[in-house]
Write a structure and sequence with these properties.
Elements (H helix, E strand, L loop, with lengths): L1 H41 L7 H19 L6 H26 L6 H21 L3 H25 L7 H27 L12 H38 L9 H18 L3 E8 L2 H8 L1 H18 L5 E6 L2 E7 L3 H21 L6 H4 L4 E7 L6 H17 L5 E3 H8 L1
Parallel strand pairs: 4-5
Antiparallel strand pairs: 1-3, 1-4, 2-3
Helix pairs in contact: 1-2, 1-7, 2-3, 2-7, 3-4, 3-5, 3-7, 4-5, 5-6, 6-7, 9-10, 10-11
Keywords: Membrane, Transmembrane, Transmembrane helix
Protein name: diguanylate cyclase
InterPro entries: Diguanylate_Cyclase (IPR050469), GGDEF_dom (IPR000160), Nucleotide_cyclase (IPR029787), Rev_trsase/Diguanyl_cyclase (IPR043128)
Length: 411
């Protein structure tokens, strides 16, 4: 009687485990399917790596489905194909990260690694049956790929557009790597380790449950990174002039409002430098608008090379630009403007364009400088800097005029 009851109990335990396993595996497949749909919606953004991450979730979805119905399928499907899809999925995540950050993809090496790991799983399934060794191979492969993912993310720190998204991605990759390494070690050294994931034990269900979150966790990172990059791209487009890359008029005005408030609060100087390309209409009429655009881009690069990191450089309109210089006196800004004017002439002398572009690139700049007064609005500051700029043009162009010199001339 006791034997019958025990056998009935074990049968019920086994059936419950099988149902739990089926539910866990199908839940993992559904999660991967949902993430695949989300990733497919990002394909049109053109973000590198998205297609590889789609492949990763597709393979993981196949693997979970095959694992779920492993008892009803031929071993070649429930073991070899399922494990192959599982190994390929994490390799695809790594490929996606390398593509996203512009590193060499090494598809041949990656494919060979997947095939070698799958060959090891096959050998220890049919030739030398060992669940422990199969577990070690899969865990080692996953851990290695996840470590490579984490290192790829942290190596590309200079390209991060959102600290949180990238830290999450790299950290989660290392967490998954640690989890797989721990599982492999535990399977090898613990006497209570199961001989199959389908054994009716808390260990098996825990391992299965944890496995369903691996691909979603590894996919959330890419989703956050792509979203972060898209936001950075749109913010740049909203705040930058589309032709030259200088700050847009709106963004420049917003920066000026912040700096004026700060200058009044801390009692430090704030200076505005307005810049105009001399005879720009003549350049457009003589050489064409395309060459005029190149002149503006060339000028912006020349100014940005000589700016400080705390300065703001914006396009005010047409060929007129402005540099807002925090913590700078009128004399300091005038000296910086003169260095810019001389530096531009030296650039032209060292690199002379050939042919049609030579005349267009032989341009000069007129500049006006004004310093913030405590009663000023930014409009007032801009008016005085513009007045100095117009005085520079009246004097013959290719020079710097300060508002102090303007006031003396008008006195």
């Amino acid at each position: 009687m006791c034997s019958i009851l025990y056998a009935t109990f074990m049968t019920l335990q086994y059936e419950r485990t099988m149902l739990s396993t089926l539910f866990i595996m199908l839940s993992g497949a559904v999660l991967c399917f949902i993430l695949l749909l989300v990733l497919l919606s990002l394909c049109r953004t053109g973000a590198p790596g998205v297609k590889a991450w789609c492949v990763a979730n597709g393979l993981s979805m196949i693997a979970f489905t095959l694992y779920a119905f492993g008892r009803q399928l031929p071993p070649v499907l429930s073991y070899e194909l399922a494990n192959g899809a599982c190994l390929g999925s994490v390799a695809a995540v790594l490929v996606g990260y390398r593509h996203f950050f512009g590193y060499p993809l090494r598809l041949g090496l990656t494919s060979a690694s997947v095939l070698c790991a799958l060959a090891g799983v096959t050998v220890y399934h049919y030739v030398y049956p060992s669940f422990m060794l199969r577990t070690l191979i899969v865990s080692a492969f996953y851990a290695t790929c996840c470590i490579a993912i984490g290192l790829t993310v942290f190596r590309a720190r200079a390209a991060w557009t959102s600290r949180y998204a990238y830290l999450f991605s790299g950290t989660m990759a290392f967490v998954v790597a640690f989890g797989h390494a721990a599982r492999g070690v535990a399977q090898a050294v613990l006497p209570s380790a199961p001989a199959s994931l389908l054994e009716p034990s808390a260990w098996s269900l825990t391992a299965l449950s944890a496995s369903t979150f691996v691909m979603p966790v590894l996919t959330l990172g890419p989703l956050m990174i792509v979203h972060s990059k898209m936001i950075a791209k749109y913010e740049y487009a909203a705040n930058r002039d589309f032709l030259t890359g200088a700050l847009s008029r709106r963004a420049f005005w917003e920066a000026a409002a912040r700096e004026i408030e700060r200058a009044r609060r801390v009692g430090r100087g704030l200076t505005l430098l307005t810049i105009d390309v001399d005879h720009f209409k003549r350049i457009n009429d003589t050489y064409g608008h395309a060459e005029g655009d190149e002149v503006l881009k060339d000028m912006v690069l020349a100014v940005e090379r000589r700016m400080r990191s705390i300065d703001y450089f914006g396009r005010i309109g047409g060929e007129e630009f402005a540099v807002l210089m925090p913590d700078t006196s009128l004399e300091g800004a005038a000296a910086a403007a003169e260095r810019l004017r001389i530096g531009l002439a030296e650039d032209r002398a060292s690199v002379q364009p050939q042919g049609h572009a030579a005349g267009a690139r032989d341009y000069t700049l007129s500049m006006g400088v004004a310093e913030l007064r405590m009663s000023d609005s930014f409009h007032d500051l801009m008016q005085r800097a513009d007045a100095a700029l117009y005085r520079a043009k009246e004097r013959g162009r290719n020079q710097v005029v300060c508002e102090a010199a303007l006031e003396e001339a008008l006195a």
